[in-house]
């Protein structure tokens, strides 16, 4: 079964990196968005819950502290919330 939600998550992460690059000129944002977005979408493509779970947990570990320090919803808060949801989703399917 196709993991449409996983593809959407990967697209949102990639889009966030691209927007960060366009708005702030942050090459690191573009690179991180591309890498994490690709990994999330690739995990959805392979139907690999382990890869998708690891990707969402890594992204959560990066963006969670940024959200905690900055208290800004965009982009850190959105990615943190989505990563929590995806980690729970993939964790439940693995159990």
TrEMBL record:
TM region positions: 7-24, 30-61, 73-92
GO biological process, one term: regulation of heme biosynthetic process
Family per similarity comment: Belongs to the TMEM14 family.
Cited InterPro entries: TMEM14, TMEM14_sf
Entry annotated with the keyword Ribosomal protein: no
Cellular component annotations (GO), alphabetically ordered: mitochondrial membrane
Keyword tags: Membrane, Transmembrane, Transmembrane helix
Localization per record: Membrane
Protein name: Transmembrane protein 14C
Principal location class: membrane
PANTHER family recorded: TRANSMEMBRANE PROTEIN 14 HOMOLOG (PTHR12668:SF43), TRANSMEMBRANE PROTEIN 14, 15 (PTHR12668)
